[in-house]
Model the fold of this input.
Amino acid sequence: MADPLELQMTNDFAENKITDALRLYLEEQSLADKFSGSVLVAKNAKPVLTYSAGLANREKGIPNGIDTKFNLGSANKMFTGVAVAQLVEVGKLGFQDPVGKYMPDYPNQTVREQVTIHHLLTHTSGLGSFIDTNIRDELLAAREKLKTIADVLTLFKNRPLSHPIGELHYSSDGYEVLGAVIEAISGQNYYDFIREHIYKPANMPNSDSYEIDPHNPRTDIAIGYTHRDPRTDKMLDGERFDNFGLNLLKGTAGGSGYSTCPDLLNFTQALLDHKLLSPEMTELVMSPKVNEGSKDNQTKYQGYGFQIFEIDGVTRVGHPGRFAGVNARIDMYPKLGYTMIALANYDPPAAFDVAEKATELLTQK
Done:
């Protein structure tokens, strides 16, 4: 029988090798001005690496820290997916129910009658994304008025479907409809429901869909800095500029809420410890529903609010977020016991590069 102390020393050596290599990579990326943000890696819920670099607020000289609140982009979809599953667990909702069962006044008859909760969760509803560049002018003109889920729905609820139902096309609009379904069933606004049923039980005191005033931004948030043209998403030369003229001023059911590395670690642990959903429902939402295809050694699937990757026999579950001056990755490796959280206030792939480096280190043979 192997000596337990020897096994522990071997595991510690492997863990240190991974974290040392990732820290070195982060230092190189930061020095090259390719990364500004915060990173947390945990093993069995215990942080084994924390790292922060860059400025959260250039004007005031505020540095990024491990407790800085970052815009999550689409990573918020995990919270919406869990909230929907909670309603299913208490018998108030069914994954195969049509939208019209809960939103009988939704103007698009096809959506009412044929699009199900499953379709919305897996990006197979045929709905589009109101943040697409080909309709960006409309979003930029309306964004200061987008204070509720109902406000967001006005941007697209009268449009025809963008794609056939059942085909996989990433859809932020689908998650906004899910937010409206949550409101219709619970009688609460979406934001209150998420605070009560996700943030509170998961111990996430520094997470919310804050309403940001671009003229007087909070000092505890990371302002996004970008090179991207607001209407085309093409990269521009010159210095990065703040993304207040581009981004939503309040988060929605599909994205743009704020959180911190420690809060997100608490969320992943609450999920894996079944404090938010039963073991059976946790398995259901985090398991593959739609195969999105393979690239290199990774096969990607859509779950219910989560993306699942199979990488050389290792499973990674989580969700990314991306926008101008916004980049996030929350990755769980359930079989390995690792969680990796990378939050950046630079354009993609600032956090994605870090997350992929972590994947490489964690899955190497």
Observations:
- The radius of gyration is 20 Å.
